[in-house]
Amino acid sequence: xxxTLMSAAALLTLTACMHTASEQAAPAPAFNPxxxxxxxxxxxxxxxxxxxxxxxxxxxxxxxxxxxxxxxxRVRVLGLSASEEQGGGSARRLSEDRxxxxxxxxxxxxxxxxxxxxxxxxxAYGATTSEGLDVPVRNRxxxxxxxxxx
Length: 150
What we know:
Layout: H1 2-25, E1 38-44, H2 54-66, E2 71-79, H3 91-110, E3 117-121, E4 140-148
């Protein structure tokens, strides 16, 4: 049984690696002016961290590839966290670090103009409902990119 579980885990890992490699090896799509629209996507972080994970980089790079050739008019990055995240200090500071780290990555790796960025931090605001219940999965940031055809 243990061997079967280990074999299944190895197969899943290999399949995931092959899928990621095929996405990276795929040629960039031809420029499509219809793709130059607003993109809204979420990036998740490890709890208490503002470091961009490999999976997050993959998602960002795929979103950027889809609008390659478009003029990026505006990029809004909103960092979020919860007050109870471990190891991240204050929720506000962690949110700011997440948003700034993403903005730096987008500027440096995608060459989107930093002057068009709006970087915001939500801190723990909204992390609980009016009934006092925790809002799940606050270890994330939301990125909204407005692009137009040149």
